[in-house]
Amino acid sequence: MQSARQNLKSLAARILQDAAPHEAVVLAWPLACGSAVAERTQALTFANGTLYVRVPDAGWKAQLEAFSSRYSQKLSELSGNKVNDISYELARSSSSDRR
């Protein structure tokens, strides 16, 4: 299993290496945060060392802020770009989202 994991990491590194810096960090978000978080969030853009991520609500924002330093470090490693900060933005709710 370890070799499969290494192969996936190598493949991801090659893909991210070929991407533009602002795209590489956005593409690396699901790898850094994991599938459960990636399914509920959306990396929007990376500019001036900050990744902007849309989150579903204030609860998610508060929880993810606690992991920001870990995510920043992992994103920097994966993408090869220095990620200084992550800014979490609340998703706008539509009338169809309300119960």
User: Percent range for helical residues?
Assistant: 55-70%
Overall mean pLDDT stands at: 88
| Count of β-strands | 3
Query: What is the structural class?
Result: alpha+beta
Number of helices: 5
Q: Tell me, what is the CATH class? A: Alpha Beta
> From the structure provided, what is the oligomeric state, counting identical versus distinct chains?
single chain
| CATH homology superfamily name | DnaA, N-terminal domain
Measured distance between first and last alpha carbons: 44 Å
CATH arch. level architecture: 2-Layer Sandwich
Largest β sheet strand count, sense and barrel closure? 3 strands, mixed
Radius of gyration (CA) equals 14 Å
* Contiguous uncertain segments of 5+ residues: 95-99
The CATH topology assignment is GMP Synthetase, Chain A, domain 3
Task: Assign an overall shape.
Answer: globular
Strand order of the largest sheet: 1-2-3
Task: Return the domain count.
Answer: 1
* Element pattern in H and E: HHHEEHHE
Q: Report the β-strand fraction as a percent range.
A: 15-25%
Plain-language structure description:
There is one protein chain. The chain has five helices and three strands. It is of the alpha+beta class and 99 residues long. It has one domain (2-90): DnaA, N-terminal domain (GMP Synthetase, Chain A, domain 3), CATH 3.30.300. The N and C termini lie far apart (44 Å).
